[in-house]
Amino acid sequence: MWIADNWKDYEVIDTNNGEKLERWKKYVLVRPDPQVIWNTPRTDKRWYSPNAHYHRSNKGGGEWEFFDLPDQWTVNYKDLTFNLKPFSFKHTGLFPEQATNWDWFSELIKSSGRNIKVLNLFAYTGGATLAAASAGANVTHVDASKGMVSWAKENAISSGLKDAPIRWLVDDCVKFAEREIRRENKYDAIIMDPPSYGRGPKGEIWKMEDSIFPFIELCAQLLSEDPLFVLINSYTTGLQPAVLSYMLNTVMVRRFGGYVEADEIGLPVSSSGLILPCGASARYICL
Known about the structure:
By secondary structure, the chain is of the alpha/beta class. The chain has six helices and 17 strands. The chain has an eight-stranded mixed beta sheet. Strands 2-3-4-5-6 form a five-stranded mixed beta sheet, with no helix packed on it. Helix 2 links the parallel strand 9 and strand 10.
């Protein structure tokens, strides 16, 4: 498992009965987590005095209960700064487990010895975009949500990357990739974090199981003659690391050579020493 264990401003304190107790800098949140199916004693007092608690509804969705939490605050990861705020369906605007991938591709970019063009698709609030830009890459950031792109821009400003070579685009990722192919634009690296299900700005439907393999085939046409890496993240139940690995092997390795690594990603739990699984990633490296 690839573990995001270099955080100072974030911590999974404890896990119990479908929930996780987290520290985001100085604020403590309780949020649901479907992986936490065990039930152990809640000995940490912070379970009973969090700054906010997201309660999941039996009918789906849920709602926040706030005690003492600002509308917005920041956390830092190395030289990056992220603006956080509680919003729909338990999220805060950051997936801290992805830091293990940020560290991985940042080293690849820095050690490449050349100018790297990165395409970040389904780019959300820009964690991977900022990590790549901080490592020296030129980044194209694409997400179908105008609000998410605006949030990512705020994170760039907070991280001192306002003038970094980042191109911000609100667009459907599939349609954008198709246009880039027609324009014959090429990238040295592609990052994608596709949703299980989603709709584009014009109602385009994305369903992970049906759409991801054709999309990988499409994106292969966007890679330069000397690509550096491709990273795929998945939070979709049923798409195991081996499935992601097989898709990248089938498309990328056959075309460019290189190799694929795939595994779960996770976060350490302070109280137990266990690792909380948080999804899967596959990394294609072209050597």
